[in-house]
Here is the input.
Amino acid sequence: MRHLLDNDVFFAAMYSKHALHAQCRNWLDRVKPDGWAVTAETYLAAVRLLMNPMVLKSGRLSARQAVEAVEAELSGTYPGRVVLARRRPEATRLKHATGHKQVMDFWLVQIASEHLCTLATNDAALAAAWPDTVERIA
Amino acid sequence: MPTFSFKAAPAEAKAIRAAARTRGLSISEYLRRAALPRRATRTAARGSFEPGRVVIQGSADAPTLTTADVAAALYE
Here is the structure.
């Protein structure tokens, strides 16, 4: 496994009205043969977003539809794994967060590091903060 | 088409007629709807759900989302 997708990249690949959908979709299609995964947190984030009426408005999915969509993306010729953290959150890493939104990002960086893969993100700041572990997609 | 007939007490018949009239329905249609409530309908998800490649088409009223919008939806 080489690529761990963050919440935004995974959702953007599946949702046509994300501004970076085309880039994320094309990138994911291209790298799937290399081996890819999402964390359980990212799996749940995708389900939450797909069900959220503030996000998808009238196109929001039911829980069943959202789970089926995520499971369908994870299946296929090059299935994606759902991985868990191997250790508790590392205080030394989290102390670098400059805002509350970075806490989950840094957690995903830790999980990517534990699984010896890179975290795929659209977040330029995150990619700059952890250049050895994070790859910027768009 | 099959026909149903059944007995009702006068008070029941009166109540059924009144309820149907209130809703602007025939007694048959009122009883049909009462016996077979429609399931709440949800628009089928639009898009492609191929194994390994899902693309969900956003609805017309949904905004185009940015990475910041996604973060806000998840964390705020």
Summary: The two ends of chain B are 57 Å apart (CA to CA).
